[in-house]
Design brief:
371 residues, alpha+beta, 5-stranded antiparallel β-sheet
Length: 371
């Protein structure tokens, strides 16, 4: 369970210090000591029930000291049991009792949230396991950003698997949020991980995953079966050819980068997302692009390009990539991570996933494996 920030822990102390500074400066008829009633509530935001109880006793005692101390605005000891001060003691005690309950409830909720986060992090490690940093001549790096700190997993997904047909990559974005989106993402990753190893044709792989997603949507039932779709990009980098094969299923196009050159690999034939392919004839097709040593491919979800700044302007991904120049996958995604948070002022509205892949030079100049 994370500790409260330092300023919150010191807030009750600073509040009492402010009251002690103001009390001698105010007229006798306007005692600032009545403000000590708030001390138990302030303590409840950062401390447990025992500490709140101690703060309550301290506040009542300090109120009595200030009420009966002659040095404080000229009051005599007779004010100690004045009905206004007695009422203040009683109110502080009542507020302290409520603050103790509040602190106990807060701690229970924080422990529950900590347990939920632990389960979410464990589920994410199973669902979105880290991709290898090196597969053959490919160097890889992944990025996942959740829009909500309490929800570490969502509908964005990625995967990279080495197969006898080459390294196969997947990036996807499930429509919707919540447990259904997580279930759909898990089903799609499971289908891809199974099919990627035994289906020689990338287009046939996409068709088989699409069939699995349609079956899954039917099993879930409901009135929105056809709306449970997933945008995705399947990519394949074979070991025996300097090309990358791509099947884009209604997803933002990958970005190709090489030494100052940045361009989107847009297909000339728009394709529907998975689970919507039955609406059109021959929905998916294969595109092949050159992919030589030193080239880099960036796959990402729309959470990247739909990030907005304070004025509502979308994140200019291509302009940023051109300005940064060539960067290795790890540094590229680290820069993207920091820039997205800065651009949105840490106010991401959607989950974000990205996968960067670079084909290393062959021979003695090749970079050593990392990670």
């Amino acid at each position: 369970m994370p500790a409260p920030p330092a300023w919150l822990r010191w807030l009750p102390v600073m509040y009492v210090a402010a009251v002690l500074l103001l009390e001698p400066l105010t007229p006798m008829d306007w005692p600032v000591s009545f403000a000590l009633i708030a001390v138990p509530v302030l303590a409840a935001f950062a401390y447990g029930p025992v500490a709140v109880g101690a703060a309550t006793l301290f506040a009542v005692g300090l109120e009595a000291v200030l009420a009966g101390t002659p040095c404080c605005a000229g009051r005599s000891a007779g004010y100690l049991w004045d009905r206004h001060y007695v009422a203040s003691y009683i109110c502080t005690a009542l507020v302290g009792a409520l603050g103790t309950v509040l602190a106990a409830h807060r701690i229970r909720r924080e422990r529950t949230l900590a347990d939920v986060r632990f389960v979410a992090e464990t589920a994410q490690r199973v669902l979105l396991r880290p991709v290898p940093h090196r597969i053959g001549d490919l160097r890889l790096q992944s990025l996942y950003l959740s829009a909500a700190a309490e929800a570490r997993i969502g509908g964005d997904l990625y995967e990279a698997v080495p197969t006898r047909f080459g390294v196969r990559l997947l990036i996807g974005d499930v429509r919707g949020k919540g447990l259904v989106a997580v279930e759909t993402a898990a089903a799609m990753l499971g289908a891809f991980r199974e099919v990627a190893y035994d289906e020689p044709d990338l287009l046939a792989l996409a068709d088989r995953v699409d069939t699995s997603m349609r079956r899954r949507a039917t099993q879930l039932g409901g009135n929105e079966t056809s709306e449970r779709f997933v945008t995705a990009v399947f990519a394949e980098v074979p070991a025996d050819a300097h090309v990358v094969r791509i099947v884009n299923c209604g997803h933002p196009p990958p970005v190709w980068l090489r030494a100052g050159e940045v361009r989107e690999l847009e297909s000339g034939r728009p394709a529907p997302p998975l689970n919507l392919g039955m609406l059109v004839e021959d929905p998916y097709h294969l595109d092949t692009y050159p992919f030589r040593p030193g080239d880099q491919l960036l796959l990402y979800t729309d959470g990247v390009t739909e990030t907005r700044d304070a004025t509502g302007a979308f994140y200019p991904l291509l302009d940023r990539l051109r300005a940064w120049g060539p960067l290795p996958p790890k540094e590229l995604l680290a820069r993207l991570h920091d820039d997205l948070l800065a651009y949105s002022h840490k106010g991401l509205q959607d989950d974000t996933a990205a996968l960067a892949v670079c084909l290393l030079p062959v021979g003695p100049s090749a970079e050593p494996p990392t990670g």
